[in-house]
Amino acid sequence: MKTTTKIKNTKSVVSITVNNRRKNVIEEYKQYKIAQGILLNKVYLQDCIEGMRLLPSSIIKLITADPPYNMKLKGQYWDKMSPEEFLEFNRAWLLEAYRVLEEDGAIICFGLHHNIFIVAQVMREIGFVIKTQYVWEKDYGRNSIYVPNHRAEFMILATKNKKSKLTYNVDYAKSINNGKNISNIIRTKRTPAIEKRHGAFPCQKPIELMEKLIKLHSNEGDIILSPFSGSGTDCVASILANRNFIAYETDRDNLLLTNRRLQDVRCDNDYAQKFLTINQNQVCSTI
Q: How far is CA 265 from CA 154, 211, 237, in A?
């Protein structure tokens, strides 16, 4: 049985379909949202650590995180930290991620060899339980003459603790793999040009990839958290999968790009009121 809970704000009424077992959590979030001005299905122009501190504990079903890899590439100012800074940065955002995650929630974190082992180490220290590692195999990437060409990225799938019941929609997995359970290798082609028509982003994930992950490890009406929104692919995929989202982004241009992408998704007549991110002059309220 499903219950529809309505969250009111000054502009619109957002209907969220949730299971009865999650009704109390959503009601708690409703009250907190009104007090702090935090809305579902918005991208906040804010550092994710500061933003997550405004959220109540145990509210998020699935976190899809694509954090800085610390590759120190030219022109990517957000991706240049010392080893000590990088370790502390990962510890800080993962601690808040752990707190806001539901007891039966999960986190999917992207990475390469630059960061994935550090993230895994910090996850275990905090209390996450790593369940498996996905491999995202793609037909493009960085070329090299010193090591094999890069054609894959990695995704850690972890739950909050040993008692957590991981959501894994095996029926959906079979539906996208000719009736058989999928492997932990997900193959996609290059992000289609049509998904970049509103602007370029250096590490934009394809919607196909994120929609599959979200549908595999959450249910309709769940809340997805995207701490590093970037071009907003997680947000678009959440909408297409009938999930709710909360996202954070520190770059104003990226936020405006996400606005344009979300405007392109035609869900229903009240889409403009329901899913638009904040405009360029708004920021999340702070404590």
A: 28, 14, 10
Q: For 95-144, what is each residue's pLDDT tens digit?
A: 999 999 999 999 999 998 888 999 999 999 999 999 999 999 988 777 88
If 0-12 CB within 10 Å is exposed, 13-18 middle and 19+ buried, where does residue 87 land?
Answer: middle
Task: Tell me whether residue 134 is in a domain.
Answer: yes
In this prediction, residue 82 has a pLDDT band, given cuts at 50, 70 and 90, of: confident
**Residue 103: inside a domain:** yes
59 closest CA partner among 131, 160, 130: 160
Q: Give how many domains the chain has, as a whole number.
A: 1
Alpha helices (H) in the chain, listed in sequence order: 23-36, 48-53, 83-100, 116-126, 170-175, 207-216, 233-240, 252-263, 271-275
Check residue 117 and give its pLDDT: 93
Tell me the two tokens of residue 27: 């009601």
CA atoms within 13 A on the CB side of 165: 1
Domain holding 91, by residue range, is 2-275
284 within domain boundaries = no
In a domain, 132, yes or no: yes
d(CA 5, CA 67): 32
Specify which residues 223 forms β-bridges with. Answer: 244
What pTM was computed for the model? 0.79
Tokens standing for residue 142: 């960085």
